[in-house]
Write a structure and sequence with these properties.
With 169 residues, the protein is mainly α. It has a domain at 60-167. Helix content is 55%, strand content 5%. A two-stranded antiparallel sheet has the order 1-2. The protein is globular and about 45 Å long.
Length: 169
């Protein structure tokens, strides 16, 4: 058995696909039906694992590049997992002013937009502006309102106003 096959086999132990005993597989009624069922099971099994990873890596104390990239590319998941909005907002509020302002910018002036290069096995260039185009503004505004109420804030800081303004764009 090759290394890749062994990894696949080991990673499937305990996964939704490993529930059936060998030789007891039931025939799906159609390939489309089998794919849909597999997708639902796989998603429900792996989603909590992925959120655990995100919660561990995407924190207010993460490296600046992680915060910049995370605020852009994790904004989309707020549409599907609104319960993650409070964690996202915590990182956004704790981000340094320059990072938050750049992330919230939806139409940067030509030549001022910043992109982050991340080196590794696959060097990539990441966009670091336009989060409001990706997120669900209603969820973010609601989470911000709840944050203000929960913390009994009498006055808003620039970060709160900036985020609320971005929700209105």
């Amino acid at each position: 058995m090759g290394a890749i096959e062994e990894i696949k086999e080991n990673s499937q132990e305990g996964s939704p696909d490993s529930k059936q005993s060998p030789g007891t597989a039931s025939k799906p009624k159609s390939p489309k039906q089998a794919t849909q069922q597999l997708s639902k099971d796989t998603i429900s099994f792996y989603t909590p694992l992925l959120f655990d990873i995100i919660q561990q890596l995407f924190t207010p104390h993460a490296p600046k590049a992680t915060i910049k990239i995370g605020l852009i590319y994790l904004a989309k998941i707020l549409n599907f997992y609104p319960e993650y909005t409070n964690s996202y907002l915590a990182v956004l509020l704790a981000a340094p002013d320059n990072i938050r302002s750049a992330v919230l910018e939806v139409e940067p002036l030509p030549g001022t937009e910043e992109e982050v290069y991340v080196s590794g096995a696959n060097t990539e260039k990441y966009r670091t502006f336009g989060a409001p185009h990706e997120w669900n503004s209603l969820y973010v505004a609601h989470a911000l309102k709840q944050y203000v109420i929960d913390n009994n804030l009498e006055n808003l800081e620039w970060a709160h106003i900036e985020i609320f303004s971005a929700c209105l764009q």
